Amino acid sequence: MSFFTDLAHQYIDGDWRPGKGSWDIIDFNPFNGEKLASIPVATAEEVDQAYRAAERAQQAWADTNPYARRTVLEKALRIVEEREPQIAEAIVAELGGTHLKAGFELHLAKEFLREAIQLALRPAGQILPSPTEGKENRVYRVPVGVVGVISPFNFPFLLSLKSVAPALALGNAVVLKPHQNTPICGGTLLAKVFEDAGLPPGLLNVVVTDIAEIGDTLLEHPVPQVISFTGSDKVGRHVATVCAANLKRVVLELGGNSALIVLDDADVDYAVDAAVFSRYVHQGQVCMAANRILVDRAVEAEFTEKFVAKVASLTVGDPADPATQIGPLINSSQAESVSRLVDETVESGATALLHGRADGNLVSPSVLTGLPADSPVLQQEIFGPVALLVPFDGEDEAVRIANDTPYGLSGAVHTGNIERGVRVGQRIHTGMIHINDGTVHDEPIVPFGGEKSSGLGRLNGESMVEAFTTQKWISVQHGRSQFPF
Q1: Which end of the chain is more exposed for a tag (fewer CB within 10 A), N or C?
Q2: Which residues on adjacent β-strands are paired with residue 352?
């Protein structure tokens, strides 16, 4: 796999080099266990070198004409388009994504790059009135400086790009740390794309490392002014705590426990299709996935029969096979955790309409119903192919159950009456909700983010300007101020 070995390096200040750590991060294919690459970890010293390189390069980049910055991003988009088959193969190999999933991720990545191209020209200043005679108030939008980005394993190319490209477009420099399970697709692949697009050295640095090696250096370092983190709420809380202690801004895109609600007047067949995709896309390893599927008792029997039949028909296997719909989970720890959770939930009183089993990292789908109201699994994010069917009586109970979670990321409502769906959606405490659709959506100009334990801040569109720039007030006194002494 020369593609992987060629990119199995740190990328610091435009230099491809091995890390100086005493151990290696091994990049495995999660389906067949093939070793894709071995990367010596970056040390805390190298993280410092990356941030210092970013700091040195950033001011000249901020001073660069935004049209010139835009040209680099345009070249990056063309490179992604030209290399799309190769990148798709890498997604299949490194994270066990199916061909469908790889296509979905790359489609979104290109859309977000197109939006980032426009962002280069987006920041606008203001001239504001003053109560002081002769004074002019100018408010400038300026880059924050250096942004630290920490990306996850499930959509690594997209979710790294989603912060990296806008931050660069707006005049910042970036240090990116990809997840250890996806160091290429989430890290050095992006570095190669932007290097080939002509991005000057130092503006994008990629450090492949682990907290066991560097501790909180990535967060505590004095250079970055903003940390953009996508991952679990447990780690997100730690990121937020460390950044608050160091007076750094954070953007946190965390986990979810989304509910897809099927009301009594829903198109049941369509709702089944939406629910199956929302729960099982990329083996359920999606923060927006429909963990809980709430079904009105009036249509429960019909929905359940059709849902179970469709789930049972899903093809589980090698993600390299175009016919596969359910590939492997990212690693053995995750596969064992999901299997154990299903077993424990059934032992505690739930009924398994389908009881998925693990075969290596492949975990076949489970469908559980009859869960006790106090079942812990109803409160948590399940990063695997497990659906929870929960019946309800009427809208009020559906809203109560949907809101009975510490999370608030996405959701969906299925109904024959769109305005009824909107009214129900307005009562759900979540950052995003979709009427007569799935729960898994992301669009370049629509604010993306969650409430409660699902995160802080928003990404996409104008939210990127808020995230990666700051405001600077410069006043001009055209006359003479009067001072009291």
Answers
A1: C
A2: 368
